[in-house]
Records
---
Amino acid sequence: MSTLIALARALAVERGAAQPCCAVRHVHISDRPLVFVPLALAGEAGAPLAAMVGDRPQAARLLTVPEPRDRDQRFAFAAELAAIVLDYIGRYLSREETVNVREPRVRFADAPQLLLPNPAGLAFTRLLGRSTRFRRTEGPYAVPENVPLLGRWLTFFAERAEVPPSSLTLPVTQALALHWATGQSPLEDLNLGALLGWIDPPPGLTGAQAAARAEDPVRCPPAGPATDPTFDNEVLELRLLAVRTARATGDGRAMRRAKDALAQALATQLTPAWTLMWRAVELLRTLPPGAHVSSRWDADKDAFTWHAGQIRDGGPPQPRRDSAVSAARRLAGLEKTQAEYAVQRAFDDPLMMAEYRMTGEAFAGTVTAAEPDRVDATGRRRVLRPRVIVETDDVVLAVPGTVLTSPARPSQQARVVSVTSAGNRTAVLLELKGGMGRALTPEPGSVPETGEAVCYATFGDGFQRLPDFPAPEDTPWTHGGPPAPYVPADDDAREAWS
Amino acid sequence: MTSAAELAARATEEILAGLETAERGVVVDSPPGAGKSTLVVAAAYRLAGAGEPVMVVAQTNEQVDDLTSRLAGARPQLRIGRLAASDYVPSPRIARHPNVTVAVSAADLAGCPVVTGTAHKWALVRDAFWPWAIVDEAYQMRSDLLLRVAGRFGRALFVGDPGQLDPFSAVQTERWTGLTWDPMQSAVAVLLRHNPDIGVRRLSVSWRLPEPAAELVSEAFYPFTGFRSGSRAEQRRMAFTAASFGKNACDLTLEMAARTGWALHELPARHTVRTDEGAVTACAALAARLLQRGPVIYSERAVAGAPVTADRVAVGTAHRDQAQAIRARLRADGLAGVTVDTANSLQGREFDVVIVLHPLSGRRDATAFHLEAGRLCVLTSRHRHACIVVARAGIPGLLDAHPSAEPVHLNVPVKFPDGWEANQAVMARLQPWKVRAP
């Protein structure tokens, strides 16, 4: 936890309400996100019990599994869910847009967005995808046609969530905790009800009181996938027993009654979380989006287009494990995007930049002198190299020779010529390069003027190339040699421990 | 009893002889300061002498320059290629060797029997092949980098220190945990999991660490593959030319360190922020006082004594902001020459006296980062003469309150030593050398 976040949390306690720690929203929120609140059966790994799913607050669909230990019913649930999810995704598979003027390519004009209550809900989604994507639609233990397809999409959503800047799949607690600091621990922030209690307490309550209320599972059932154990023991157990009895006796009317009663009980557990999810979406929408949010969403659209193409072209499902080369390549991609994401957030958001100003990696100040027409004639060619002096009260760790970037002019490099300190005030002499047009006089506005408030950071958002890796068939001996090509088999869906 | 020098010479000879019969390669584990570079240089000659071109891979430009100048200095007739990025400026120690050719492209170094470069530079070389590679600091190299380089060579000698910091990634994911080719693991870990028949050999004499240090470091961080010091206790000595003035804690600590090779400068217990004012001041004050008192060291290299200058003193920390705070304090005192850096940056370097800000000092919790055995091992094994650990009191209690609770994963080999245990061992061993500071 950085010092600023620690301060924000302390303030939240003192003031009784969560404190914003971002000036802008850093995630994309779709106009029609698909909200998915799953519940799992306790004690049975990855067994779905119920889910509430839909892309509008008033259009909640409740899916239940009357006998969660029955594998057939599990896949019937998956088929029902698949109908909803695939229909939702299908709506994004029609509108296309052409991008990149030089090398035009076509991608879908928008992408779906999956919202889950918390990281555990995401982990459940990943498991559900893993347990369905390798299923066969013919032969023994065949599943409905759309189940493996659902598995591939859920896997895609879950894998995309690992990419830091992606908004395609968002655990809502994570998105909220990124923008608000509460007066409780990060562990307690995983409780959607308590987190929203701090951020948006009901009238008459402080954040702490609202959060404490939300911790009562009777008043605010947990947002899944784990259910409240008291509910399990006192309600769920009896309702499941009624279903089991009705099935054993073959009584159709009793069965219907038992199923209805079960669905009713599960709805009481899911509806509060459903309401909270949409409240969270509303709250996130109130924040203005950061400048880089749309370009990051473009990357999500690219990923969506790519995966839709994989499915359309009959590609194999995502492998259970990454090969040596794809693991390394994926890690390189993750490292690159994570670094870019951190820089973009700092450039978009003065509150994020403040963290770097605290550590001396950035400073903000005022231009006290500017020489915008300065030309360097010492080299082979006369070049425009304006100089400015920035005075700041921040800590400056940059030394002469360091290249800095300003969020206001990201394409311009500022090289530190000298740093002079007097008391707490530091004057930094900067020499500017690039981003000023081609002539020997800078374009208007491209050089900061005297009196302008500026910020300079020791990091820039320049493009970084991804490293090259060998082709999978050239995997060297140090990494086990080339992997065997994938051949679909009946055992694909079997886990090593099952 | 055989002398340390004979022991070391025999081990090196065995490793070199083993190269000829190795099918795929050899891994050599080396404790701190055990003559790793000497081995690399000897192996490069041996292989190049047998007519097999060698590529030498190190992790940083600093390390490559170091190896290159040692190679070039010892055999002036051997042509050595130094592969470097286009913006590389040869340091003076490279430029003074006429037998070193610096080039951006491997094709320009075709005639050189030995070509050196960083792993990142080698990863960019294409369509070239060397029968042999020597990979230095292989435990610091991440396996995904080895993946990019491994296509360039047939057989390889991997040399490194398993007790140092593992490579790391800013990306937090368990996606690859348990995979044999986990890209976040070290190059050696992945290599050995796929090639279990590759022999692992050990160097077992540390030429850097003085006897008391070798004992502690070996016991705490290399519990199953111990090593000994190449020097005897009476060979290494530190004395001060200026007498102490009164009896302040800094002087007591310095005298303890001069006498025993270790000192624990213990500040009163307190929970603090990372850049603990008291600890930062103590580190800077100890460094300043040390240099004021004109320390002279006596060792097998300098029997008649040599002064300790600022560039032979280092302060090591866990975090960058701590290093920055100490650096700023020393700069204000006019001691910019003292190296202040994090454990990651101090890896592979050597000093006469090292002052360590203990990673757990003043903390409320002991996270995996702060418990990592490699971090403390790097910090406490950089010195030739003395190591001073600065810490707030209460670390053993903190450790007891935070037993190691890292999850155990399937298919992940257990790594020794456990950070918690190593930290306990070091604190327990340091107790006799404790000096209480106000």
Note: The two ends of chain B are 46 Å apart (CA to CA).
---
Amino acid sequence: MIDTLRLTAEGAKKLLDAKEVSGAELFAAYLDAIGERDPELHCYLHVCADPGGEGIPIALKDVIGTKGIPTTAGSRILEGYVPVYDSTVAARCKAHGLRFLGKTNTDEFAMGSSTENSAYGPSHNPWDPARVPGGSGGGSAAAVSGGLAPWALGSDTGGSIKQPSALCGNVGLRPTYGTVSRYGIVAFASSLDQVGPVAKTVRDCAFLYSVIAGRDPCDSTTVDAPEVVLPDGDDLKGLRVGIPTELNEHEAIEPGVRSAVRRAIDLLQQLGAEVGECSLPRSVDFGMPCYYLIAPAEASSNLARYDGVRYGFHSPHSDDRLAMYKRTRDEGFGDEPKRRILVGTYALSAGYYDAYYGQAQKVRTVIAREHADAFERFDVLVTPTSPTVAFELGGRTADPLAMYASDLLTIPSCMAGLPGLNVPCGLSDGLPVGLQLIGPQFSENVLFQTGHALERAIGFDFVPERLR
Amino acid sequence: MPEISREILLHVAHLARLELREEELARLEVQLNDILAAVSKVAELDLADVPATSHPLDVVNVWGEDEPRPCLSVEDALANAPDRDGDFFRVPPGGAS
């Protein structure tokens, strides 16, 4: 009997290596779990048949292009689209023998913090199905915590890996910008988008990162990443941990989140880390406005390609080309992509460019410099990942700005191109709380070491209480 | 404080090739003004001497050799076409922008 709720990818590999289970049995166990729980959780937009082999199964967020497997990005405008080539990350997973369980739900074009912007309906949080799993990569996060995949890939523009990992009790890494190829990924905001792993443990997360990281000739924004060292041990002696005041004492942070993160910081100290306060004075207040100009501006450009001509949805209700473009896009895009396309088009249009997009790019420099200053004194920074635990479905859908605030604490480091690791650090009202470890560019190994030590000290049980 | 009037909204929607329906226009007009009011906060900082960041890594152009490589076949390129005519994508006629 394979307990997919408990089984880590590392554990699955041991079972396979020892021939205690066959590849077919392992894949079937996940398909059974999907059959049992996905009708309630709705993590998957597409489930695959076992391609055969002895590799570990994996789920991929549906913005990741997969040859011969539908890829919708949670949008009606890509309904029926079947890529004719693999993204580099999908190809690297295959080369490693990993077998695709399916494609996971996402807010449309990865725009959102709850999966409620998916054209195919929201996913539900395995800890409490009345609540959101976070977003945009809520399908991947819910699949991992609900035992419907041992691990998964997500993508993160302003928090879409870290925030759902926090809300579902997973370990999730947003890697340093440029370390993972975006070739074949549905583009949202190209100066921010990153693909990264979602897992049950820091070691699984580190291993999956090692599978996908590295320079890719097909993506000229990629660079070589340092070799991944799988974390071991729990000695953090000499590690300098900074606690940015503005990201730890923001009024939006719930008391239960604050105290769980505080306890984890105390544990870091007990493990030998030197903890000190620091300040990122403008990163929070100006991070959100900066992000919600730059990301929509880039999105408005990236989403111009959806015109009903070459692939995807095509409105039948027009006999004139311009009208066909406009109707295809009106009928194919949901509300959030439309809002972002319009904000972005406005911010980039003649007469407004300098005041909006240009100014936001300068704010971005300010945010990056503030982080660089903090890293003069500290090796890692610790903050809550999400200001709140998982919120109820429908709780923030009426007010776009309330939804945007979900990413308050994840956005600043994304703007600076820094890696961030979500590590579960406890429960508040029976729901997972995540803390965010932020490091300088290319410091993934430090984040893994720190996260691993912390994970052991905290002893968080990643199986949702109601499913134990 | 920015103000997106109905006229500006329609102009931007045209630039973005979106034909918005009446009920969408009413909702979006309010939401976009709210969003722009929030993001206009970036104007509060005096950043005349600060350079812009367009890309978080310090990388410059990446050059590749100009070597022929296999690429998508015509059939693959057209595989997802909503409408085709032989080796062409078919679109409705006309449509001056």
Note: Helices of chain B lie at 6-15, 22-39, 74-78.
